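Section handout, structural biology tutorial.
Before the tutorial, make sure you can parse a SMILES string by hand: atoms, branches in parentheses, ring closures as digits. In the record below the ligand is pyridoxal-5'-phosphate, and the chain has 386 residues. In the tutorial you will relate the predicted structure tokens back to the input. Do not try to memorize them.
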Amino acid sequence: MKGTFPINKFRELRTPFYYYDTKVLRDTLSHIRTEVAKYGNYSVHYAVKANANPKVLAIIRENCLGADCVSGGEIRAAIKAGFPTDKIVFAGVGKADWEINLGLDYDIFCFNVESVPELEIINELAAAKGKIANVAFRINPNVGAHTHANITTGLAENKFGISMQDMNHVIDMAHDMKNLRFIGLHFHIGSQILDMGDFVALCNRINELQDKLEARHIRIEHVNVGGGLGIDYGHPNRQSIPDFKSYFETYNSHLKLRPHQTLHFELGRAVVGQCGSLISQVLYVKQGTNKQFAILDAGMTDLIRPALYQAFHKIENITSDAPVQTYDVVGPICESSDVFGKAIDLNGVKRGDFIALRSAGAYGEIMASGYNCRELPQGYTSDELV
Ligand SMILES: Cc1ncc(COP(=O)(O)O)c(C=O)c1O
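Predicted structure of the complex:
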């Protein structure tokens, strides 16, 4: 089954561009709200890194999510889109002074701190402003996730977070710092996780940590389990809404949350992944020795995921019903890794056909670059193209 697209409107636009189906986005957000409402003490922050298109951010903000940011630029984008500053969390291993100051100036909800030197700098900068910064520690739980190696983040070998061995010491340090308030623990084990067992492993690890902290009479108000819920890249139409029910139920069944605690989530891909497609046109069909190439006007500069981590995106020829043939679908960039898919079955392709690379709403437009002096792709919503 192919997706449905406003092809006539597409013909008026310059390709490549991103197309966001706002019905899918709104349905996704509505599912999240319904599931979260079952639990009372759950708070979902949207991970802005997945897609910071202002039109997309505005719809997410309307649905009352908070924002998870990893840079000063993302904090600015979130504030511009109207996210309340007291619902902004700020993570990242390398926060620059100006970024910390920005967070302090806006009194954001929490800094997710990833190292001792960072903790000291936040305390120093907060003191200079006469403020008290809320901090949570990002703990590296040494939990693996069944996903691509480049998107696991919770293993001891990854650069993220504070190790479990150092945790007690760092919490003691924070308690001694006058311009910090230690409010919670933060975790994030990776992205595109579909095996709920990985989240169960994280819950078990958090339960152990909480028991140890409780034994030391350390009170944690907020537990933030990050994001990571994956989407079905193979079936963007059949499975346009990720399995939020199982996801939240997993945490509800396995995490021993204390009655006073709030559980925070930072979902990116699962919120915006399925609503977006990269729309491109075929420039040439080229016969190779043993194969044929469909050469698109979109390349790895527009959607880098296949080149960066061999990611799969469903590819559809949305303007052809011709008999299916097999193509290597490639871009125009001067790199051999500029390939969207090899041996892909598509309805017979000719110059000018429109090709949709599906499930590209997350880590698509936001990762676009100007390599080869290319223009950045525009992003349009279905609301605009009626
Ligand atoms: C700290 C943190 N939180 C949340 C996310 C969002 O992850 P996802 O898009 O898989 O939900 C990421 C992604 O890398 C992250 O690093």
